[in-house]
Amino acid sequence: MQDSPPQPAPDSAVGRGAASPPIAAWWLGRTAYRDAWDLQHRLVAARYAGRIGDQLLLLEHDPVLTLGRHSDPSHVLATPAELAAHGIEVIETERGGEVTYHGPGQLTAYVIVKLADRKLLVRPLVQALEAALAGTCADFGVEASPRDGFPGCWCDAGSRKIGAVGLRIERGVSYHGIALNVTVRLSDFELLDACGMPGVESTSIARELGKPAEPTTDSVARAAAVFAVALADEIGAQLDGALPPHADSDAARADLEALLAAPRGGPGAAVTT
Questions:
Q1: If both were cysteines, with which of 105, 123, 216, 218 could 184 make a disulfide (CB 3.0 to 4.6 Å apart)?
Q2: Which has the higher per-residue pLDDT, 72 or 149?
Q3: Closest to 151 in 3D by CA, of 172, 169, 178
Q4: What's the pLDDT band for 193 if we cut at 50, 70, 90?
Q5: How far apart are CA 134 and CA 155, in angstroms?
Q6: What phi, psi does 115 have (nearest 5°)?
Q7: Domain-embedded: residue 255
Q8: Helices (H), 74-150
Q9: Torsion from C-alpha of 20, 53, 31, 232, nearest 10 degrees
Q10: Cα–Cα distance for residue pair 99/111, rounded to 1 Å
Q11: 7 phi and psi, to 5 degrees?
Q12: What is the pLDDT of residues 196-247, one digit of tens each?
């Protein structure tokens, strides 16, 4: 019998105020990787053209391995037959970083931000993402932090990796983002050298709390709500959009498509937490 998925700590701080310009958060629920990848490209083009504001996509993927543009394919340890048996596709992407696993029980967040409008450089944005990952873990009662020289978020003085960071910047606009293990099935990480680091141990919020659980979208949604607020605070942004548990992923996707279709979009609706 499995324990229930992790819950935020009682003193979870959601909905703190922040300065403008806003960033619109969208909870999209379970989304196929290629679908989200295409959506990111369209949002980046619209953001560069000035038709929309900054966007934050919050979602969960079906099992997939993605390769960064300079990654070493040998870090995929499973054979094509083994991957097929698991129903896992390998996709080469344009982001930075090495091979990464995405799957059920893991929060993936894509950050479409025009850096110059926020007076941000790439490294401070990476640091903000790492701090937001650590802050989200802390909200659930898990101690985690960045590790010098190794992007992402780590537990136990850097011995176990709980979150990954990988970005792409095109024409001054960021995309791709982070992955945070919430209730993800950790055995799937045996298929790869996570982030190109042989022997690295992957962990999750559920494991660190000693409450192993089957992957659930609800657990990812709870983490998404916390992460969105943490990131907005880190980059000094007003947070717009509907967050779980009040968000409707189908309505959010329809609204995103309408935003992209409009001659000039807006930042999104008022935040609900």
A1: 105
A2: 149
A3: 178
A4: low
A5: 9
A6: -60, -40
A7: no
A8: 80-86, 122-139
A9: -10
A10: 19
A11: -115, 150
A12: 565 678 999 999 999 978 999 999 999 999 999 999 999 999 999 999 999 9
Q: How many CB atoms lie within 10 A of CB 2?
A: 11
Kindly tell me if the per-residue pLDDT of 157 is higher than 60.
yes
In the numeric block, which tokens belong to residue 133?
Answer: 């990952």
Question: What's the predicted TM-score (pTM) here?
Answer: 0.88
Active site residue ranges: 195
Separation of alpha carbons 130 and 124, rounded Å: 10
Amino acid (1-letter code) at residue 109: A
Please indicate, yes or no, if residue 16 is contained in any of the structural domains: no
* Arithmetic mean of pLDDT, 40-45: 98
Domain that holds residue 167: 30-236
If one counts the domains in the chain, the total is 1
CATH for 167: 3.30.930.10
Cα–Cα distances in angstroms (integers) from residue 206 to residues 72, 220, 224, in the given order: 30, 11, 15
CA distance 273 to 271: 7
pLDDT at 11 over 60: no
The answer as to whether 230 is a domain residue is yes
108: which strand partners? 59, 179
Calpha distance 174→168 (Å, rounded)? 6
Q: Are strands 22-30 and 54-60 parallel, antiparallel or unpaired?
A: parallel
